[in-house]
Design goal:
The chain contains 13 helices and 15 strands. By secondary structure, the protein is an alpha+beta fold. The chain has three domains: 4-80 and 145-249, no CATH class; 82-144, no CATH class; 255-368, no CATH class. The strands form four sheets. Strands 3, 11, 12, 13, 14 and 15 form a six-stranded mixed beta sheet that branches. The protein has a four-stranded antiparallel beta sheet with strand order 4-10-9-8, with no helix packed on it. It has a three-stranded antiparallel beta sheet with strand order 5-6-7, with no helix packed on it.
C-alpha cells in the first residue's frame, strides 16, 4: 500500500531570522521540532479506504493521533480540556467579642463552621483556626480548555468510517471536499465539550477545531446507532456544513434567492414584518424573524428553506393541503398553489436547489436519505 507523508514544522519558542552579522556568520533556526503525518496507519482493510480518500480529496483521515494533532491551535494555544480547581484564601483576626462555640466561629456576627463544608457539587469550603487567626479557604472546580477526545478503538473504525461516509462525505464531490475540508479528519471517541458555565460536559458527535474535523463514535455506538439517531446526526452535520461552516457557506451565492421576497421592514421596524396570514404570499415558509436587521432576516429566511428541504420529502411539499392556512408546524403542501398562491415559495425553492447543484450538491438527496 502506498504511504502518504506530509512534513510539518512546529515552531517551539523563538526562531531566529536568517541574516548576517559582522563576521558574516549565518544564523540558523533553533528550537524546531519536525512533525510528520503518515498514512496508512495500519494494515486493516479500512486503511485502503482511508488512503483512497486522501488520493481523491487530499484529506488525512487519522485514527491514531497525538495530542498535538488535535489540540494545537494557531499562535500555539492549546485547546485540551481539563478540570481545574480554583483556590481562594482569606485570613481573619479574631477581635474582642468574637468567639467559638460548638465548632462555629463567630466573627463580628458572621458565622464560620470549622472543618470542611460542601456548598455544591463543584464547590466547598474549609475553615480552620490557628490561635487567633481564622483561615477560610474556598474551592471551586471548573473545566478549562475547549474539548477532549480519545483515540478511536481500532476494532470499530471500519463502522465509524461507514458512518462518516454514509452520513456526510458521500454527499459531496471530491473536488469540493478537496477545496473546503480541513487538512485532517480525526476519528475519535468520547468527544466532549463544556457548557458556557464551565461546569457541565456535553457529548458531541463532531467538532471543527482549527485544521481538524473531529468525528466521534469510534466505539460500539458506531454499530448500534438506530436509523432515527443516524438521521438526526445526518441532518445536524450537513446543516452545519452547508449553513455554518465558513469555507462551505462562502461558496454559494444567494442573491437570486433574496431578490424574490421583499424585506420591506428591514431597517424600519420588526413590528412591521408580515403577519402569519401574509407570510406564504410573500414567499416565506415561516413568519420572518422578529428583527429589522436585513442580514438576520435573510439568514433566517434561508435557514427555514434549508430546514424544510431536510425535514420534508418533495412529495409532502407538493401534496394537496387540507387548506391554505398558515401552519408553522406543518409545511405539508407548501409548494401547492393552495398555499403558494403567488408562486414565490416555489421560485425560491427552485433557485436554492439549483444553486446547491451548481456546486455539485444535491440537497434533496441529502434531505431524503434515511427518510423524513
Amino acid at each position: 500500500m502506498k504511504t502518504k507523508n506530509i512534513l510539518w514544522i512546529l515552531i517551539v519558542g523563538f526562531i531566529g531570522w536568517i541574516g548576517c552579522n559582522d563576521d558574516n556568520k549565518t544564523l540558523t533556526p533553533s528550537g524546531v521540532e519536525e512533525y510528520e503525518l503518515v498514512i496508512p496507519q495500519g494494515n486493516h482493510e479500512y486503511d485502503a479506504r482511508i488512503v483512497d480518500w486522501f488520493d481523491r480529496t487530499g484529506v488525512y483521515i487519522l485514527y491514531k493521533f497525538d495530542p498535538v494533532d488535535v489540540y494545537l491551535k494557531v499562535q500555539a494555544s492549546w485547546q485540551e480540556m481539563y478540570l481545574d480547581t480554583i483556590r481562594t484564601v482569606n485570613y481573619y483576626e479574631m477581635k474582642e467579642g468574637d468567639f467559638v462555640k460548638d465548632s462555629v466561629a463567630n466573627l463580628a456576627g458572621v458565622e464560620y463552621k470549622l472543618g470542611a463544608t460542601k456548598n455544591s457539587s463543584t464547590s466547598w469550603q474549609e475553615v480552620s483556626l490557628d490561635g487567633k487567626t481564622l483561615l477560610v479557604v474556598n474551592y471551586k472546580t471548573q473545566y478549562e480548555g475547549t474539548f477532549s477526545v480519545e483515540k478511536a478503538d481500532e476494532a470499530y473504525v471500519d463502522k465509524q468510517l461507514d458512518l462518516l461516509e454514509q452520513l456526510f462525505l458521500n454527499f459531496y464531490p471530491d473536488s469540493l471536499l478537496r477545496s473546503v475540508m480541513p487538512l485532517k479528519i480525526i476519528l475519535g471517541q468520547g468527544l466532549k465539550t463544556v457548557s458556557g458555565n464551565q461546569q457541565t460536559l456535553l457529548n458531541k458527535s463532531y467538532l471543527l477545531s482549527f485544521n481538524n474535523f473531529i468525528f466521534s463514535h469510534g466505539d460500539e455506538t458506531a454499530g448500534t446507532m438506530t436509523d432515527a439517531s443516524k438521521k438526526t446526526l445526518k441532518n445536524d452535520l450537513n446543516k452545519w456544513f452547508l449553513q455554518t461552516y465558513d469555507k462551505m457557506k462562502d461558496r454559494f451565492s444567494y442573491d437570486d434567492f433574496y431578490d424574490v421576497s421583499d424585506y420591506y421592514w428591514a431597517g424600519v421596524s420588526a413590528s412591521s414584518r408580515p403577519v402569519d396570514s401574509m407570510s406564504y404570499r410573500l414567499g416565506f415558509v415561516k413568519r420572518p424573524y422578529a428583527t429589522s436587521q436585513l442580514s438576520l432576516i435573510q439568514d433566517d429566511d434561508l435557514k427555514n428553506y434549508v430546514n424544510m428541504i431536510f425535514d420534508y420529502t418533495y412529495e409532502t411539499l407538493v401534496a394537496t393541503p387540507v387548506n391554505g392556512n398558515y401552519n408553522a408546524n406543518d409545511l405539508t403542501g407548501i409548494l401547492h398553489p393552495l398555499k403558494d398562491r403567488n408562486g414565490l415559495i416555489r421560485r425560491k425553492y427552485d433557485i436554492l436547489i439549483n444553486e446547491f447543484k451548481r456546486q455539485g450538491v444535491d440537497i434533496e438527496t441529502i434531505g431524503s436519505y434515511l427518510g423524513k
